[in-house]
Amino acid sequence: MWQMYHATGKKIFLNSARSVEQKLDQAFDVYDGLHHDVGFMWLPTAVADYKMTGDRKARTRGLHAANLLAGRYNPRAGFIRAWNPHMRGGKEEDCIGWMIVDSLMNLPVLYWAAEEARNPAYTYIAENHADKALQYIMREDGSCNHIVVIDYENGEFLHVQEGQGYALDSAWSRGQAWAIYGFAVSAKYTKNLTYLAAAKRVSNYFIACTDKTGHISACDFRSPQKPFLSDTSAGVCAACGILEIADQLNGTERDFYIDSAVNIVRETEKRYGNWNMEEDGLLNGGRGSYHSGEPEEGRPMIFGDYYFVEAILRLMERYLPVW
User: Fold this and answer.
1) Confidence (pLDDT) at 88
2) Which one of 37, 93, 129, 239 has the lowest number of neighbouring Cβ atoms within 10 Å?
3) How far apart are CA 314 and CA 259, in angstroms?
4) Residue 61: CB partners within 8 Å, gap ≥ 6?
5) Mean pLDDT by 10-residue block, N- to C-terminus, for the chain (323 residues)?
6) Distances (CA, A) of 201 to 114, 148, 188, 222, 317
7) CB-CB contact of 229 with 290 (8 Å)
8) CB contact at 8 A, 64 and 28
9) Number of helices and strands in the chain (H, E)
10) Which of 310, 285, 295 is nearest to 232 (CA)?
11) pTM above 0.85, yes or no
12) Rounded Cα–Cα distance for residues 219 and 299 (Å)
C-alpha cells in the first residue's frame, strides 16, 4: 500500500496502509510471538510511513522494531537468533543457536535505525550477522544454506539444519533470493564490496538455475525435476535483489543484471500473473516450502505479490526504498 501511495499519490492506499500499521501495534503488545522477522514487518509499514510522511509515531514503531531485533543478537557468537522455542516433529526445540538466511533481509531495519538514532551499534550488529552469514550460510558454488546451527557460546559452526527446501543440502530458492537481496542491501548501507560480491555470486547461481526453466524459479534448485514445483515469490524477490545489485554497478555489467531481472519478472507475469479484479493475489505459483503439501500448481503468496509490485515500480523508477 505504501508503494502504491508513493507511485500514485492516491489517498486510498495511504488510508489502507495506516490501518494495517495501527493493527500491527497489537503485535508489540503480545510480544512473545515476535522473532527475527520484525524487519519484514515494520520496514514496509512504519518505516515506509515515516519516509513518506515524516510521522513521528511511525518512526517510534520502526525504532522499536530495531530494538527488538537487536535484542536477539548474541554478542559472544556474533549472530541474530532465529525464531523462538517451538515444536517440530513432536518435540520442543529452543532454536538457541539457529541462524537463518532470511534474517539478512531484516538487517535493513538496523541500518536505518543506526542512521535515524545516530547509534552505530545497530550497524555493528548487522555487519557481524552478515559476516557470520558469509562464513556459514554461503557455499562455495554461490548457493546458500537455509538454517545453520551455531555454538551460542563461541560462535563456532555445528551443523546444517533442514529447512524449507527439498533436503538438507539442497538450494531452497526463496532462501537464495533472501541472500541476494540481503547482501546487496548490506552492501548499499556499508559500501563493503565483500557483501556486493556475495550478492553477485548468489544472483549468478540463481540466474543460471532459472535460465534452465524459462526464467521461472523452482521451489528448490536441487529438487527432482518432476514434478516441477514453482515458487514465483522467490523469482520476483530475487529480481528485486538483482535490481538492487544493478543500482550499485555501471556499464555492461549493470545491463546484464537488469536484463536478467526483467527476464524473470516478464516470464513470471506471463505464466502466473492474475489480473482478475474479482480475485485476490497478483501472482499464482507460490509455495511456502517444498514439503508443505500445497497444490502442485502452487498458490498466491502475499510477499510474492509485494515483490512483484516492487520489481515493476523499480523498473518504472517509482519505487519507495524501504529496505
Assistant:
1) 57
2) 93
3) 13
4) 21, 24, 25, 28, 42, 45, 46
5) 98 97 95 93 98 98 98 97 74 82 98 98 98 98 97 96 95 98 98 98 98 98 96 98 98 97 98 96 97 95 97 98 97
6) 27, 20, 16, 17, 25
7) yes
8) yes
9) 13, 7
10) 285
11) yes
12) 12
CA angle 84, 86, 88 (to 5 degrees): 135
- Which residues are CB-contacts of 124 (< 8 A; sequence separation ≥ 6)? none
Residue 87: predicted pLDDT? 52
What pLDDT, on the 0 to 100 scale, is given for residue 85? 82
Interatomic CA distance for residues 209 and 297, integer angstroms: 19
Neighbours of 281 (CB within 10 A): 16
pLDDT at 33: 87
Return the bridge partners of 144, or none. Answer: 138
What pLDDT is stored for residue 229 in this prediction? 97
Q: If you ran DSSP here, which 8-state letter would residue 298 be given?
A: -
Q: Which residue(s) pair with 88 in the sheet?
A: 91
- Count of C-beta atoms within a 10 Å radius of residue 251: 7
Strands ordered across the beta sheet of 147-150: 98-100, 147-150, 157-161
What integer pLDDT is reported at residue 289 of this predicted model?
96
Strands (DSSP E) contained in 55-156 are: 73-74, 79-80, 86-88, 91-93, 98-100, 147-150
Q: Is 273 helix (H, G, I), strand (E, B) or coil?
A: strand
- HSE value, Cβ hemisphere, 13 Å, CA-based, for 286: 23
What is the number of other CB atoms lying within 10 angstroms of the CB of residue 235? 33
Q: What is the reported pLDDT for 261?
A: 98
DSSP 145-187: -SEEEE-TTT--EEEEE--SSSSTTS-BHHHHHHHHHHHHHHH
